[in-house]
Write a structure and sequence with these properties.
Oligomer: single chain
Order of helices and strands: EHHHEHHEHEHEHEHEHEHHHHHHHHHHH
Strand content: 5-15%
Low-confidence stretches: 469-473
Shape: globular
Length: 473
Amino acid sequence: MAEKKPIKIMETVLRDAHQSLIATRMPTDMMLPIVDKMDKVGYHAVECWGGATFDASLRFLKEDPWERLRKLRDGFKNTKLQMLFRGQNILGYRPYADDVVDSFVEKSIANGIDIIRIFDCLNDLRNLQEAVNATNKIKVQEGRGHAQVALSYTLGDAYTMEYWVDMAKKIEEMGADSICIKDMAGLLVPYKASEMIAAMKSATKLPIQLHTHYTSGVASMTYLKAVEAGVDVIDCAISPFAMGTSQPATEVMVETFKGTEYDTGYDQNLLAEIADYFRPYRDECLANGLLNPKVMGVDIKTLLYQVPGGMLSNMVSQLKEQNAEDKYYDVLKEIPAVRKDLGEPPLVTPSSQIVGTQAVFNVLMGERYKMATKETKAVLRGEYGQTVKPMSQEIIDKVIPGEKRITCRPADLIENEMDKLESEMKEYKQQDEDVLSYALFPQVATDFFKYRQAQQEKVDLTQADTKNGAYPV
């Protein structure tokens, strides 16, 4: 009998699965009743926070994301909780000062997060170092916290096997606890995964986790080959919220490895109860239009054009608004050209939106870079960090002629900002975490704080005379 090497599974239903399928709209009240059963499975971890959950909780669900985390922590007695963290951008869309990053890491762990998965849209490791350091500091002080560095997987001339192996070595040197290959567009095909895992395993002792999406239809096969090649953890979603633009189904992967050296040992009856719990909610989301059947299928264009599903749909709606749907294939051809001009970044938030929008402009204007978005200019200035390949000098000269470019880590130019942020929002502060909510989403958080106050004081905001400060209760 071969030596047992049970594959570990991270469950994504409380974060990436509903982010991918229903725009992150699952409320906390939907999650809590099933926590007890999920806690008995023996998952490696449950991903339940970070990514777009923070913004969506405040903006659409009128929930405090910190409160969600505390409630989930109370429920999960035996299972590690994991979050997704955008490096120096934390969960927002701009780089923050180091003191904000430090504070956010500290509060995330204090409120219940065990594993922080940290990534950067350019794979610029300088943008990840502060978050890793902050996590390690808490680990030394309190014995809690795990820094996982994620590499955004992509294709292109720069992304050779040597590149990935070299990055794995650098991640180990920077003090991370594990590595994640983050394949946001489902571009990693089975035999390539096999080769990549084997090569990285020979270069680092760190555990390697694989994250992919079912968008292009190959994800389960990719997991099979990755597991055979020695990957340590795979990310899966319970079946009602699996497949399509989400992850492969947990139960399918458990069954696949049953009776082999990779057997998870998970109880299929227990997983079936968890699936039964989520199924009516999935049906409800289908009925009310929150779940669009389009995201449930396979989009082979992802592999053909190497463009993530969300980026494609964004592009189609931009062309529709301009009555230029006939330009679809022209824009698809232009995307790789723009990506090359900008130093071949991986296509993940926000670089995917920046490249896609610029490609649309280039085609509609009839002249490349006749009009450049402010984000394109920021990339060219180096405000997002360093790209794997040099950016086109010709495009730099055309779009930002004579402007100074940043070569240092962008956050080195940002002064500490926690005190300033706190003074701006102190009238709403009820907990230290509120300052961080405000830091990431000033307007959205302020609206939420006002709503929270009204709920606490039982005020009907629709009847409030805000000008004179008169509030009928």
